[in-house]
Amino acid sequence: MAVVVVKVGSSSLSNPSGGLDRDKLQHIVDELAGLYRDGVSLLLVSSGAVAAGFNKLGFRRRPRSIAARQAAAAVGQGILIEEYTHRLQQHGITAAQILLNRSDFSDRTRYVNAFNTLMLLLRKRILPIINENDTVSVDELTFGDNDRLSALVAGMVKADLLILLSDVDGLYDANPHEVREAKLISDVPHITPEIERMAGDAGSPFGTGGMRSKVEAAKIATASGVPVFLGRADRPGIVRDAYHGRARGTYFSASGEPLPNRKQWLRFMTQEAGKLGVDDGAAKALLSQGKSLLASGIRTVSGEFAAGEVVLITYRGEPIGKGITRYSSQQLEQLKGKRSEEIEAQLNMPAEPVIHRDQLVLLVEKESVQRS
User: Fold this and answer.
1) Which one of 70, 137, 208, 264 is most buried, counting C-beta atoms within 10 A?
2) What is the spatial distance between Cα 9 and Cα 7, in angstroms, rounded to a whole number?
């Protein structure tokens, strides 16, 4: 079963005044229906709730305050899902509304529940329409934009492709609005610092994401084994053409070693409760040898955390990994730098790795660490 996640931004659904453009929405629905009829399972991550709702509240432009944006989302989300549901039904497609918060990803149990629900909907040939639950988000609109949310969803369901639809053709080597000779980059085998520097911050006045957020989303998805296409939403046949590799836009290749679901969750969806600074030997063991983190390699412990929480691993001040610790910060202050036999004597029990390699994910490329 081929699975494709399609993300459409606010600018691709709104008119110049910021209201919902029903002709644009119909175009998106028709595009989805074409690929759906080919037997592909689809998930749609759709922005547009705030854009659809703020005119109804009497605002002339997209509001900036949190309360006004959340109120606009409350009004607009109903308008948005009603339009999608009605128009998809005309193609014989049943839609399901899914509203998610960051906590639905950071909490492991809720993450698994969301995964199971989405997979059941896909097996039943129902098209989930996903948006952030903006109305109850407490840290502003928590994901910031739906580019990141779509990448997390694509990784979660192990999609065959993530299609980011926007008001731009793709990634250029310079800002095409400022440089007439700017060239479209059709293929990105690997997202390098140079590629990231090419991503500007320009975005629509009715959206929250710019090119930088799309490249960041591509980093998340490709690291999870999901290739990404970025292209212009209003092009006829864009969804089907993107799926078959013939659309105008930018294709980002998937990583050669995709992360398993649990390590995707660890890397992209958890917040670290503290930090562990490690020495040369531990860094080499983690990065080059795929080993677990032992107490003997820990030099510093920062923050207060309990056993079972996620911590950041740093080397020479730079993050190199994240993992679930077996020990609390208080315990590690006593155990850091000690060898296993010393710990066993101190605890009168077998010493365990501080972070087992199965509970650890690297944040940098695997490489040898030279001793200074």
Assistant:
1) 264
2) 7
